[in-house]
Amino acid sequence: MLTLDAILRIPAHVSFSVVGEDAFLLNAQTHKYYGLEKVGARLWQILIEGKSLSEAHQTLLSEYNVAADELERDILDLVKRLQEQELVEVIEA
């Protein structure tokens, strides 16, 4: 089961670009783009800095007015979708 304690890895075949407050991920293997809105783009930026999901959760809590449990659900849901698109790999759950 995926939790905030999971350790993620961003595969080398994933590219990231920012357009305004949004971001776009490209899976170079499937040639598919995946869009992230403002908070998702911020999460991605935190992850590419090498921070954990738990650290990302704490950072986003300090930056946005959101309940901790709601943010945790949103982060884990997004990570599951990114994993399905082969944009992140969970290397330790």
Describe the structure.
The chain is of the alpha+beta class. It has one domain: Outer Surface Protein A, domain 3, CATH 3.90.930.60. The protein has helices at residues 38-48, 53-63, 68-84; strands at 7-9, 14-19, 22-27, 32-36, 89-92. The strands form two sheets. The chain has a three-stranded antiparallel beta sheet. The protein has a two-stranded antiparallel ribbon with strand order 1-5. Strand 3 and strand 4 form a beta hairpin. Helix 1 packs across helix 2 (53-63). The longest helix has 17 residues, at 68-84.
In short:
42% of the residues lie in helices and 26% in strands. With 93 residues, it is α+β, with helices and mostly antiparallel strands.
CATH topology: Outer Surface Protein A, domain 3
Give the CA-CA distance, first to last residue.
7 Å
Specify the number of helices.
3
CATH class: Alpha Beta
Notable characteristics:
two-stranded antiparallel ribbon; 5 strands; about 90 residues; alpha+beta; globular; Outer Surface Protein A, domain 3; three-stranded antiparallel sheet
